[in-house]
Amino acid sequence: MLIDPCQDLSGQEVVQSMVNMGGFMEELIEIGRSFVQAMRERRGLGSVDEMYAENAQSIEAVVPPVRQFRVSKGREAIKGKREDWLASHEIQELEVDGPYVHPPNRFGVRFRAEVIQKATGERMTLREIAVYSVAEGKIVLEEFFMLPN
After folding, report:
1. CA 1 to chain centre
2. Secondary-structure percent of the chain, ordered helix, strand, coil, rounded to 5
């Protein structure tokens, strides 16, 4: 169930929509918790096949240094993006906070990581928020929001 953010849901329609979301809400919370746990355990790359739809998309806030584009389309492209990032960075510390749910089909996660860029040895603190959209029990879209310096 996807809700159009431009749709005017007023009065009784809002109440009825919230009542009908019970099952969606439980599934959304479970998917979000499983995702956050996988990230905390640093199983993010391994969780892609299980948690992402085949046609999922990933949108970065900016073009990452190790890539030439912001959007990765498809599960294999998302795995490739993560592999590239892990090949060029060493994670020293990782904090993952969430999920923050937004029924019926989205959840957010806050990330904070201390990483070392392998090519330069530079240590960096990365902070970002990611919003995940879910359909039919799988993540179909991830969008990253960065904290500027």
Report:
1. 19
2. 30, 40, 30
Terminal CA-CA length for the chain: 37
pTM of the model: 0.83
Structural domains present in the chain: 12-146 (3.10.450.50)
**CB atoms inside a 10 Å sphere around CB 21:** 17
Rounded Cα distance between 43 and 119, Å, is 23
Q: Are 103 and 25 in contact (CB under 8 A)?
A: yes
pLDDT tens column, 107-144: 999 999 999 999 999 999 999 999 999 999 999 999 99
Q: Are 141 and 57 in contact (CB under 8 A)?
A: yes
Per DSSP bridges, beta strands 106-117 and 123-135 are antiparallel
My answer on whether omega of the bond before 104 falls inside 30° of 0, hence cis, is: yes
Amino acid at 108: G
